[in-house]
Amino acid sequence: MDSLKFHYREVVEKVLQDYAKFLDSDDQVQVELVFDRERDRYLLVEAGWQNGYRIYGTVLHIDLIDSKIWIQHDGTEEGIAVELVAAGVPKEHIILGFRSLEQRKHTEFAIG
Questions:
Q1: Selecting from 3.40.50.1100, 3.30.310.110, 3.40.50.720, 3.30.420.40, what CATH number does the domain 3-104 have?
Q2: 11-23 pLDDT, tens per residue?
């Protein structure tokens, strides 16, 4: 296994765990971490009830593809890419997969 991919796997898991702890303050809504290390897919999901409404959805979805971190979905306010950069991941190794290729060209992150 390539060491960069192993390192990014650890970084992604830690960032998602920290974010899950931050969100996990509501007794009615469960925060779930889904780590598929074999396929390098990582999700943070919310499920439960709040004020009589069903809460269910993916907050974050990150894949590791070709030793790059692909953010497939980001439902955070600040953007999880900021957390990944703060954890030491170079911007050129982060791809905002939830943006079109044309939009990615105008960001400071990798195009993919």
A1: 3.30.310.110
A2: 999 999 999 998 8
Torsion angle in degrees (nearest 10) through CA of 63, 1, 83, 41: 20
Beta bridge partners of 36: 41
Q: Is the pLDDT of residue 37 over 80?
A: yes
Sequence-distant contacts of 36-41: CB under 8 A, at least 24 apart: 37/9, 40/5, 40/9, 40/64, 40/65
For the stretch 51-55, contacts whose Cβ atoms lie closer than 8 Å and that sit 24 or more positions apart, written own/partner, are: 55/28, 55/29
Residue that wins the pLDDT comparison between 41 and 51: 41
With a cut of 80, say whether residue 25 has pLDDT above it.
no
